[in-house]
């Protein structure tokens, strides 16, 4: 493995090692880990993070999650704070990942972003009607945006109506669907092997990638260049384009300093006895956004 900071570094490492080294970068799954201040996004970038998924399986101050919609909550899409965050991610060269977000959030981001987006692990809604998947209207906007959708292999996101089992063929169908609708430049492998108890039949783990590539190749009459794109070059292209957008924006705009001002800190009574351990507790009575919880 080799830790890399840019798309060019990743490709150079792969070529210089004669394909023997795997390039590694960092990602953050869910902006709840940023919370109050966009300065945290900049700190993550300085640490080597190059993409952030806007939500995980819960809403946060930035956006609505797909899981919330599945649970019956309203789809509020991207908040104003979230819009500022997308703009700051564009300025930094941080890839915006739309896996896990709601349909409206996808649409809102694609309206705001100046850089291509990724879906790091999502599949096709038309084949499997799950809120974690991507609808056709969004797929078409991804093509216009220059982004890429990396197909998730989690069985619940692949199972098709009338199928009793989920197999590697279902993954091929989802990949083919994206290719047929928006082209080879906008599809990749997302897997999510580290986030599922088991994969589809025939696609249980990473050892099955050669089989998947062969099946996609045969099912699409792909060229070698097409296969190179789906195996990683599309994601590297998006990464590089995000860097180019960043180079342009950094000469035009300053860092976006938005903070989220709706957090309510809850302190128990005993915390007032130890203000050094609980910064802010001394202002608990006076500050409208900080209050004492009298009920344990």
Layout of secondary structure:
Blueprint: E1 2-3, H1 7-16, E2 23-24, E3 26-29, H2 39-47, E4 49-53, H3 66-70, H4 80-92, E5 95-97, H5 103-112, E6 118-119, H6 136-145, E7 148-152, H7 168-182, E8 187-191, H8 209-220, H9 224-249, E9 265-268, E10 290-293
Parallel strand pairs: 1-2, 3-4, 4-5, 6-7, 7-8, 9-10
Give a written overview of the molecule.
By secondary structure, this protein is an alpha/beta fold. It is 37% helix and 12% strand. It contains nine helices and ten strands. Strands 3-4-5 form a three-stranded parallel beta sheet. Helix 1 packs antiparallel against helix 9. It is globular, with a radius of gyration of 21 Å.
Label this structure with key terms.
alpha/beta, three-stranded parallel sheet, 296 residues, 12% strand
Computed over alpha carbons, the radius of gyration is 21 Å
Question: Helix and strand string, N-terminal first?
Answer: EHEEHEHHEHEHEHEHHEE
> What is the total tally of β strands?
10
Question: Which descriptor suits the 3D outline?
Answer: globular
Brief sketch in words of this structure:
The chain has 296 residues and is an alpha/beta fold.
């Amino acid at each position: 493995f080799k830790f890399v900071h840019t798309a060019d570094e990743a490709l150079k490492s792969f070529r210089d090692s004669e394909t023997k080294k795997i390039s590694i970068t960092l990602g953050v799954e869910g902006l709840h880990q940023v919370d109050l201040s966009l300065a945290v996004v900049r700190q993550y970038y300085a640490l080597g993070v190059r993409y952030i998924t806007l939500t995980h399986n819960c809403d946060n101050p930035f956006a609505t999650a797909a899981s919330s919609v599945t649970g019956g909550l309203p789809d509020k899409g991207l908040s104003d704070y979230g819009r500022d965050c997308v703009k700051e991610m564009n300025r930094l060269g941080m890839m915006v990942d739309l896996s896990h977000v709601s349909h409206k959030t996808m649409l809102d981001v694609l309206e705001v972003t100046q850089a291509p987006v990724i879906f790091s692990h999502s599949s096709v809604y038309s084949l499997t009607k799950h809120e974690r998947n991507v609808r056709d209207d969004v797929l078409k906007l991804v093509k216009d945006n220059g982004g890429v959708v990396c197909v998730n292999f989690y069985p619940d996101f692949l199972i098709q109506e009338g199928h009793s089992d989920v197999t590697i063929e279902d993954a091929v169908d989802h990949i083919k669907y994206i290719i047929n609708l928006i082209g080879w430049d906008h599809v990749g492998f997302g897997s999510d092997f580290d986030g599922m108890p088991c994969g589809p039949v025939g696609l249980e783990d990473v050892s099955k990638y050669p089989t998947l590539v062969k099946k996609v190749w045969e099912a699409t009459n792909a060229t070698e260049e097409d296969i190179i794109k789906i195996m990683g070059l599309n994601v590297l292209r998006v990464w590089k384009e995000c860097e180019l957008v960043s180079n342009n924006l950094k000469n035009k705009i300053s860092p976006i300093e938005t903070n989220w001002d709706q957090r309510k800190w809850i302190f128990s009574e005993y915390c007032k006895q130890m203000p050094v351990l609980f910064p802010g507790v001394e202002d608990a009575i006076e500050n409208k956004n900080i209050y004492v919880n009298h009920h344990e």
